[in-house]
Amino acid sequence: MRPLARLPLDPAAFREKFGPWAVIAGASEGTGECYARQLAAMGINLVLVSRRQAALDALGAALKAEFGIDTRAVAQDLTEPGAGLRIVEAARDCDVGLYISNAGADGFASFFEDSPEAAHRLVRMNISTLIDAANGFGKRMLARGVDGKGRGGIIVMASGAGLGGQPNLALYSATKAFEINFAESLWAEYHERGIDIIGIAAPIMRTPTLLRMVPEGFDTTDVYDPADVTHNALAGLLAGAPLQIVPDGPGQEKQPQVQADRIARLIGFVEFNKQFTAG
Ligand SMILES: NC(=O)c1ccc[n+]([C@@H]2O[C@H](COP(=O)([O-])OP(=O)(O)OC[C@H]3O[C@@H](n4cnc5c(N)ncnc54)[C@H](OP(=O)(O)O)[C@@H]3O)[C@@H](O)[C@H]2O)c1
Questions:
Q1: Which atom of ligand 1 is nearest to the CA of 179?
Q2: Which pLDDT belongs to residue 75?
Q3: Pocket test for ligand 1, best of 2, 34, 50 (most atoms within 8 A of CB)
Q4: Cβ–ligand 1 contact at 205 (below 6 Å)
Q5: First to last CA, the chain
Q6: Is the distance from CB of 28 to CB of 56 less than 8 angstroms?
Q7: For the chain, which terminus, N or C, has the lower number of CB atoms within 10 Å?
């Protein structure tokens, strides 16, 4: 597996800011399961969302037995209209400090030969559901802080494919670009108001979805461990970072600079926009 140095992460500080409940959309396996396991180890209760009720029930029971947390399993297809609103409703009685928009992968497709309905399903999962869930949970995070500030966070699991176009990934790349810009914009708006948002331009990772997608003979050892990537996403959220680009693909040596440039631009806009919102 490709090495990725793990960033420092203080579990007590994380639980204080982002507990006592987290909601993970796309929780039953892969990166979602990694998030679930790491949050459970920090003592955070979990609302686990994906399509397969039995898989969620089994994961919830295992995490409850190992870490003593409370869990709730919500079977929901994130590509359905209204899915984001239903997730917020399913967690209405939980004090949610963290929302993770995780599911969002797609297979290779040729745009003109594929059905537009498949494209619209991806748009609903990666854009509409994210908008409704982020809005619903964000409102509640704003209301639960002290001294006029909110408290909580949102992780948007995007992809390096969102940093620019790619062949056979037109809709995936476009929706991941939305996710990155959306996360950066929310960070710029709410970071100083006590709510942290981070977009993860994730690299290729050894998840069940990836293993189902890749052709025979593909070297699945030269990919990242999802447990490392999700650990750093949680650490980056706590550190207040707006964006993490995990270097991957053609031009990867330039990506630390791309990340630095995007963050510098964003901070510039935070200051620039104060002239419009002051008073
Ligand atoms: N793996 C990679 O190499 C890679 C690279 C870059 C970025 N990413 C990003 O990382 C995130 C996670 O990727 P992943 O590889 O773990 O695969 P994924 O297929 O996006 O996520 C898997 C999880 O999402 C759930 N899920 C998938 N489709 C769903 C739907 N329509 N409704 C509800 N839940 C759904 C699955 O559970 P159920 O089957 O139970 O529904 C599973 O728990 C995605 O946003 C992806 O774009 C992944």
A1: 45
A2: 98
A3: 50
A4: yes
A5: 52
A6: yes
A7: C
pLDDT band, residue 279 (cuts 50/70/90): low
| pTM, two decimal places | 0.98
41-90 pLDDT, tens digit each: 999 999 999 999 999 999 999 999 999 999 999 999 999 999 999 999 99
With a CB cutoff of 8 Å and minimum separation 6, the contacts of 168 are: 108, 109, 110
- Residue 248's contacts (CB-CB under 8 Å, 6 or more residues apart) are 160, 203, 204, 224, 255
Share of the chain above pLDDT 90, in %: 97
Non-local (6+) Cβ contacts of 257 within 8 A are none
**What domains appear along the chain, each with residue ranges and CATH number?**
81-273 (3.40.50.720)
Q: What is the pLDDT of residues 188-215, one digit of tens each?
A: 999 999 999 999 999 999 999 999 999 9
- As a whole number of Å, the CA-based R_g of the chain is 18
- For the stretch 51-59, contacts whose Cβ atoms lie closer than 8 Å and that sit 24 or more positions apart, written own/partner, are 51/75, 51/76, 51/77, 52/28, 55/28, 55/29, 56/27, 56/28, 59/27, 59/28, 59/33
Q: How many residues does the chain have?
A: 279
